[in-house]
Design goal:
Blueprint lengths: L9 H5 L4 H11 L3 H20 L18 H28 L4 H4 L1 H19 L1 E2 L9 E2 L5 H9 L6 H6 L4 H11 L5 H18 L1 H11 L13 H15 L5 H23 L1
Antiparallel strand pairs: 1-2
């Protein structure tokens, strides 16, 4: 894409290739230094709450491949995961829309910087890739979206797209999805839950998910398990959360995180049952 000097100055053009870093920097620049620092300290306190919660120390995540009940258990787990993958993607799309709620407090630049960083993550979710051999063209394919890669991966164990679409969620799974869906209209709460999910699932629980895949007979070298966006996604959503929160909502966010973790812990109890 040709970028005219009248739009971007020479210094900006020098760094245009690093979109993710540019997005994070732009997000931080919309918040006063004192508030950014105060929010950073609050996030550090939240880390302590998260790390001490029983969800992160749940015995299900200590189990290994040889400890899982049977292949039918694994199939039910993955059917629930399909709906969750769609819910996460929908959450990012809702966040793009509701980020307008930042405007009254932080201005228009805050909205566009947040959307810029969210869009990078949505592009990953929908199957875009950063490299392209064709000049002026995006790389990617709808079949590389996270959900369609999961569909491809689950076909290895006999789970079809039709089964995923027809899946009737358990009460525990519905409660899991509602942690996102019930917050679709409140940007700060939604970003809080997305950031929490990225932190504990894409990082902390990742090794256990590989154990489930190996037990199920899934080739983790391709398809859904070949996606490697965990660290980037987690850092992005925490940047966005640090931009969105204000001290007046600290207590609310603390309660939201504790309640969400407990919902996920109850979900984990059912996996162990």
């Amino acid at each position: 894409m040709k970028v005219h000097g009248s739009v971007l100055n020479r210094q900006m053009l020098m760094f245009i290739d690093d979109a993710r870093t540019n997005g994070r920097r732009a997000v931080q620049e919309t918040v006063a230094n004192a508030l950014w620092k105060r929010n950073e300290e609050f996030l550090s306190a939240l880390d302590d709450i998260i790390n001490k919660h029983r969800f992160l120390h749940h015995p299900i995540y200590q189990t290994k491949e040889s400890d899982f009940p049977n292949k039918e258990w694994a199939k039910r787990f993955y059917l629930g995961a399909g709906k969750l993958t769609e819910t996460i993607t929908n959450g990012v799309i809702h966040a793009l829309s509701t980020s307008i709620q930042l405007q009254s407090r932080l201005g228009t630049k805050a909205v566009y910087s947040a959307r810029f960083l969210l869009q990078i993550n949505l592009l990953d979710e929908l199957g875009f890739r950063p490299e392209s051999v064709k000049v002026g063209c995006y790389a990617g394919h709808p079949n590389l979206s996270h959900f369609m890669l999961l569909v491809e991966t689950l076909s290895q164990i006999g789970v079809s797209l039709q089964e995923l679409e027809a899946y009737q969620a358990t009460d525990e799974n519905r409660n899991f999805y509602r942690c996102f869906e019930n917050n679709y209209e409140d940007y700060t709460r939604l970003i809080c839950v997305l950031a929490l999910f990225d932190k504990v699932f894409l990082n902390t629980v990742a090794e256990w998910l590989l154990e489930v895949a190996n037990f199920s007979g899934i080739d983790v070298s391709q398809g859904y398990y070949s996606i490697n966006v965990g660290d980037d996604a987690a850092a992005d959503t925490w940047y966005l959360f640090q931009q969105a929160i204000i001290p007046e909502r600290y207590d609310e966010m603390r309660v939201l995180i504790e309640e969400t973790l407990e919902t996920w812990a109850v979900w984990s109890d059912c996996l162990l049952a």
